[in-house]
Write a structure and sequence with these properties.
Elements (H helix, E strand, L loop, with lengths): L1 H14 L1 H40 L2 E6 L17 H10 L3 E6 L1 E9 L2 E10 L2 H5 L4 E4 L4 H6 L3 E4 L1 H6 L4 H4 L3 E4 L2 E9 L14 E5 H9 L7 E5 L5 H15 L10 E5 H44 L1 H9 L4 H38 L7 H27 L3 H6 L2
Parallel strand pairs: 4-9, 6-8
Antiparallel strand pairs: 1-10, 1-11, 2-10, 3-4, 3-7, 5-8, 6-9, 7-8
Length: about 400
């Protein structure tokens, strides 16, 4: 019986092909939107997570200033000094590396070329924290770091934008502001992160050189630290906070004039935001499914009216009310199910296109595909039940008399 009802449904859809296609458009749009929104949301979330992990999932950021939010007391920001860095370095066993980081934007001049880029003052441990290798040349020597000698490491992008090559620029001097420095090393290419930032567009200077010739102050605005593999990030954070409180004579954590943040906290925040956005966009897309369902119910009611005599003839030759109900219900399910299949394929194509366009990870979640298909068939049942019951409740004699 179900097989015959299914074949009859396909015949009716084929007989009114254009009308069936237009009826299923709402379901197609709804399912395609849900599939695309959920998959793109998951892909973006994974890409952001991978990008953040590349920045260092075991990295802590130590900054002056109180964390904003409920409970903050407007404590005056007290900048770090070199002594704060040395105390952390000598006291915290959980750290693999720690480096001060200062950053600014400046024009680099090399021969007749000039290019504006990021200038960063760091120590050698910064490369370890960032898992950054030197492709050619060498890193800073202790003497160069201590005395702030005029040497630098360069990223690949800036070398290219200065119309040079790693071999040709190594050992030569570039000009920054009012001083020149020798290029002693070329960094390996890291490429752009998910935030679109070109990580190779940078010049690294010894931290003391940056402070003396560019920063003009002995303040430290950021310290980055890498935590040992076998030490929980939270444990290292607590150790740093305790040491800094003792050193800065802070008795109550509420009065902290510094903050220690981890990439894990940032990952959690990003995950929460992307989840909320995905759910919201999916909910908006689901509204079009309801609109599509109403369209199916409308066209099924029209179909019942048009086929009143057919229903009467079937009942006259022995068809029961439940047979009529099942026939129209299956027709509604097949219509919405076909719309769901087309919607799934459309959603996948949209996902592939957007993932390629935005350069994010391509994610096709099979569970979402199955749920979308089942949901589209449920729409067929939900919105097809009223027309099916109307057809099943017809009086055979009245149906045969219908003109």
């Amino acid at each position: 019986m179900f097989r015959n009802a299914f074949l009859l449904a396909l015949r009716e859809i084929r007989r009114n092909l254009m009308r069936s296609l237009l009826t299923a458009v709402g379901i197609v749009i709804g399912i395609a939107s849900v599939i695309a929104m959920v998959n793109i949301g998951q892909g973006a979330s994974r890409s952001i997570t991978q990008s953040v992990e590349q920045l260092g999932s075991n990295t802590l950021y130590i900054m002056p200033g109180q964390r904003r939010g409920p409970g903050s007391r407007g404590v005056i920001e007290k900048p770090f000094k070199k002594k704060d860095l040395e105390i952390i370095r000598s006291s915290i066993y959980a750290l693999d590396a720690i480096s001060p980081v200062e950053n600014t934007s400046m024009t680099v001049i090399y021969k007749e070329q000039n290019y504006r880029t990021s200038i960063r003052g760091v120590e050698n441990e910064y490369l370890q924290i960032q898992n950054w290798k030197i492709q050619e040349g060498r890193g800073f020597e202790k003497n160069e770091l201590r005395t702030g000698q005029k040497v630098c490491l360069m990223g690949q992008s800036i070398i290219k934008n200065l119309s040079a090559t790693p071999d040709s620029i190594l050992g030569n001097k570039i000009r920054l502001k009012n001083f020149s420095c020798e290029v002693i090393g070329v960094l390996e290419a890291k490429g752009a992160n998910t935030f679109g930032q070109d990580q190779d567009d940078v010049v690294l200077l010894p931290f003391n050189l940056f402070q003396r010739r560019i920063g003009g102050t002995d303040n430290l605005h950021l310290m980055m630290a890498a935590v040992k593999e076998n030490v929980p990030l939270e444990e290292a954070r607590i150790q740093i906070e305790r040491v800094l409180r003792e050193h800065r004579h802070i008795t109550n954590p509420i009065d902290d004039d510094f903050q220690v943040r981890s990439m894990t906290a940032l990952l959690d925040t990003i995950s929460q935001v992307t989840t909320v956005l995905t759910v919201m966009l999916g909910a908006v897309a689901a509204i079009s499914l309801i609109v599509g369902g109403i369209g199916i119910m409308n066209i099924m009611l029209v179909s019942v009216t048009e086929r009143t005599r057919e229903i009467g003839i079937r009942m006259a030759v022995g068809a029961m009310a439940k047979d009529i109900l099942i026939q129209f219900l299956i027709e509604s399910i097949v219509l919405s199910g076909l719309g769901g299949i087309v919607g799934i394929l459309s959603g996948m194509l949209i996902t592939i296109g957007v993932a390629e366009w935005l350069d994010i990870e391509l994610v096709i979640d099979p569970s979402i595909t199955v749920i979308a298909l089942v949901f589209s068939m449920l729409i067929g049942i939900l919105f097809g039940i009223i027309p099916a019951r109307k057809a099943a409740a017809m009086n055979p004699i009245d149906a045969l008399r219908y003109e």
